[in-house]
């Protein structure tokens, strides 16, 4: 059907009536008990005339009346006090043994303060004296109406409490769910168990489509299909992120005029703060609004599950979903959306941790992570193998202060973690650090990840010691070249060259021989002591 991901399905009308308590359309059975012939019938006739929806049942003895109570279909008992075999209070005790909650009105012609006191102590709902005059039956009818009202209120309250408890259990259970499909499964389960919706569907949003993923057992595959976001109630619900309650599926909820205009009833066509209610008891001939697959679908409730999907339930009765249904269905959908938010966040965090772990494991450069709390305290939380091999320390066995004291030379200027976090920008520094091979030069990349309570700084070291040495050598050689250009003769130049080979290039066995044209030979001009010892005066 167009009201939802494809054909959600609700409970029947009778179920809806039960859940909202007895109504004027549902007969309320009141049992009248009096041993005096005609007295129970007379009281029953008056009460039936004065109260709508009352179905009277009369009995002449407590034993006969108790059998009726055992049948389990009595909503209130009106009993005389003075009866043979059992008085009214003894009968009350027997009734309470069968149904502890049924209202019990003691209506007696033999009244006294003592009986009234005993009746109240015994737990009667009300105590009335028959007295004389027609108003006694009006008083009795009022007493019965009040007793039935309290019973309905207590029953509704118990039902609401049970529903709240069940939804709380549902929400608590979602904390352990680790995947989205299970969340959707549980939405259907709780809707069937707690809200007593027996024809439900959850459609998951995939791009611009809504795909049915879970359904009640009573919903067949023929009743559901995939919808676009611009189709029907399910599309409207997902697109606008608003609950839609359809009282009559011949009204188009996607038509703003019909959403806002009342339709044959004060409650129809209402656009509330959190949901839209459309349709009235009389079908409107609007063009193929819902297109239900099942001919018996008359009303529906459609609730967004955040941006992730839509929950729907349908009924074969008109206006089958009341305000309580809306509130609890939205509460279930909200818990489901929150659970999916959590699952997605945890999945992203796990993926990020996995990527970070892979980075730590595979990065050939030394890397460490340091957590800085709100007070500026630092905690070394992780190091990779390259860090341990380079510096000889790791996070598993060393604290931040221990590593910093051992690795950072005292004369080296340190970067300020708090400033780094406050500015929330990576920095690149050239630093010297103590390694297992002695002091070496590094390019330090410090990357802050700012979080509300604790921030993290990732430090990655690129060893530039060899690069630094080459740069220094080139600078020295460049200075040597300038010095050679300033030499006054060949011997001065030869001396500078030999000294550069020994001091700059670290070639101790070095020397310069100059060509002597007159002798046609190379003569030693600037030879190191090591070279002389190795090769002699040649």
TrEMBL record:
GO terms for molecular function: kinase activity. CDD domains: PAS. The keyword Kinase applies. Residues 8-18, 267-279 have a biased composition (Basic and acidic residues). Gene3D superfamilies: 3.30.450.40, 3.40.50.2300, PAS domain. Residues 29-145 form the Response regulatory domain. Pfam families: GAF, PAS_8, Response_reg. Residues 1-27, 249-288 are annotated as: Disordered. The modification 4-aspartylphosphate is found at residue 80. It comes from the Archaea. The keyword Secreted does not apply. One of its GO terms (biological process) is phosphorelay signal transduction system. Keywords: Kinase, Phosphoprotein, Transferase. This is Multi-sensor signal transduction histidine kinase. The lineage of its organism: Archaea, Methanobacteriati, Methanobacteriota, Stenosarchaea group, Halobacteria.
């Amino acid at each position: 059907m167009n009201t939802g991901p494809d054909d959600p399905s609700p409970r029947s009308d009778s179920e809806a009536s039960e859940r909202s308590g007895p109504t004027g359309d549902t007969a309320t059975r009141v049992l009248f008990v009096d041993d005096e012939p005609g007295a129970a019938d007379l009281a029953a006739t008056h009460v039936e005339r004065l109260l709508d929806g009352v179905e009277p049942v009369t009995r002449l003895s407590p034993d006969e009346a108790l059998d009726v109570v055992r049948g389990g279909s009595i909503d209130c008992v009106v009993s005389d006090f003075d009866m043979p075999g059992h008085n009214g209070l003894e009968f009350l005790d027997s009734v309470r043994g069968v149904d502890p909650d049924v209202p019990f009105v003691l209506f007696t012609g033999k009244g006294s303060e003592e009986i009234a006191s005993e009746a109240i102590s015994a737990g009667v709902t009300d105590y009335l004296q028959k007295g004389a005059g027609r108003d006694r039956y009006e008083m009795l009818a009022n007493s019965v109406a009040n007793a039935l009202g309290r019973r309905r209120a207590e029953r509704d309250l118990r039902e609401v409490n049970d529903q709240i408890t069940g939804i709380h259990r549902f929400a608590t259970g979602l904390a352990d769910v680790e995947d989205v499909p299970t969340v959707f499964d549980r939405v259907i389960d709780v809707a069937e168990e707690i809200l007593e919706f027996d024809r439900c569907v959850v459609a998951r949003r995939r791009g611009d489509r809504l795909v049915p993923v879970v359904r009640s057992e009573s919903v067949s595959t023929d009743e559901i299909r995939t919808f676009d976001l611009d189709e029907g109630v399910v599309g409207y619900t997902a697109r606008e992120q608003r609950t839609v309650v359809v009282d009559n599926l011949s009204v188009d909820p996607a038509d703003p005029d019909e959403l806002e205009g009342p339709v044959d009833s004060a409650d129809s066509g209402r656009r509330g703060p959190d949901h839209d209610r459309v349709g009235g008891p009389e079908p409107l001939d609007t063009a193929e609004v819902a297109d239900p697959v099942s001919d018996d679908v008359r009303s529906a409730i459609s609730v967004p599950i955040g941006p992730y999907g839509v929950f729907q339930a349908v009924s074969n009765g008109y206006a089958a979903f009341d305000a309580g249904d809306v509130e609890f269905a939205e509460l279930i959908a909200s818990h489901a959306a929150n659970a999916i938010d959590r699952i997605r966040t945890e999945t992203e965090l796990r993926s990020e941790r996995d990527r970070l772990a892979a980075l730590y494991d595979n990065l050939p450069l030394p890397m460490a992570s340091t957590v800085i709390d709100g007070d500026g305290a630092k905690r070394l939380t992780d190091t990779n193998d390259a860090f341990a091999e380079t510096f000889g320390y790791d996070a598993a066995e060393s604290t931040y202060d221990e590593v910093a004291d051992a690795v950072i030379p005292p004369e080296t200027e340190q970067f300020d973690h708090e400033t780094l976090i406050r500015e929330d920008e990576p920095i690149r520094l050239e630093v010297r650090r103590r390694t297992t091979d002695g002091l070496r030069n590094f390019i330090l990349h410090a990357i802050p990840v700012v979080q509300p309570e604790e921030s993290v700084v990732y430090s990655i070291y690129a060893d530039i010691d060899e690069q630094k040495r080459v740069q220094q050598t080139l600078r020295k050689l460049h200075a040597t070249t300038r010095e050679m250009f300033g030499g006054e003769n060949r011997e001065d130049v030869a001396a500078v060259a030999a000294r550069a080979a020994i001091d700059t290039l670290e070639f101790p066995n070095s020397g310069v021989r100059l060509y002597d044209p007159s002798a046609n030979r190379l003569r030693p001009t600037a030879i190191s002591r090591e070279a002389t010892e190795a090769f002699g005066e040649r």
